[in-house]
Amino acid sequence: MGNFVLKPRYAVVRMLSIVSVIFGYVTDFLFPFNSSTMIGETTFPLDLVRRRKQLEGAGGRAPVYTTGLFGIFKQIYQTEGFRGLYRGIMPEYYKVVPGVGICFMTYETLKLFLADVTPKL
Predict the structure, then answer these.
(1) Total structural domains in the chain?
(2) DSSP code of 114?
(3) For 45-64, how does the pLDDT look when each residue is reduced to its tens digit (9 = 90+)?
């Protein structure tokens, strides 16, 4: 009769542990989402200017930007508006967010597995 009482408790504990593991994987994947989007929003205009400067004159085209960094920012803002500084940010998110999430999730998972192995060595 004692085993009968323990089985439901064991099942509940096991189910809670499975839920916590799944929740851990989800949080390990989603929390880097916040950091990568915030970093992307702050650094994307500078990356946009860098890419445009690299492509300037490619394929025999005439140079478009003749001023320095701040002049290019000013020209983009005047010709395309504020949204022009963030043109193409969604494809960047499609690339960066899953990569960062997978990287952090893999790190946390390996940290858990190796923490169990390390004391035995």
Answers:
(1) 1
(2) H
(3) 999 999 888 888 777 777 77
